[in-house]
# Entry
Amino acid sequence: MARHKKKAADLGAWLCFEDEAGQGLRPPKGRTWGRRGRTPVVKVTAAGTKRVSIAALICTKDGRRPRLIYRIHLDHGPAKGRRKGFTETDYARLLDAAHQQLGGPIVLVWDNLNTHVSHTMRRLIAARSWLTVYQLPPYAPEFNPVEGVWSHLKRSLANLTRHSLEQLTTLVKSRLKQMQYRPGLIDGLIAKTGLDPQPP
# Structure
């Protein structure tokens, strides 16, 4: 990871970590208060395969506040030719938006998802002179601070009921927006990985 930090520092770039997650209409389970001997029951709509998919970046640079940038994709369930998740073009659009918002080059660190390492993705990366990409080691999610975003998000959704994909999407966007305005939280998620994002 030290070489990623040095590369970002040498380029005057933002060091960005990326990851994806999804949430269906069945909420995560969480602890709650209830009368002794009476387990609380939360009624939900587990409407098949409908889900909200999120791709997010945590971006850090010495002397600048950390940033959380994300995009959402809605999967409305079984349909002929439906797109279930993010495509290479979707990732390219997310990175283009981040480049515009951050106003500088990006050193990107992400996992070995097949969409991340496909020939199409490699071509899109090569076409962006401001983008340098590194892969995380296999099975090393603990090095990615975006994992903490998903943990924080899912805790905030525990036991909540949303009966439509649109309601769930609104709630997810609201929770992520709250995180965007908490740079201390984002710094904490980076620190939790044990990585020092500052150049050696």
In short: Helices lie at 2-11, 88-102, 114-117, 119-126, 146-157, 165-180, 183-192. The chain has a mean pLDDT of 84. The longest strand covers residues 64-75. Strands lie at 14-24, 51-61, 64-75, 106-110, 131-135.
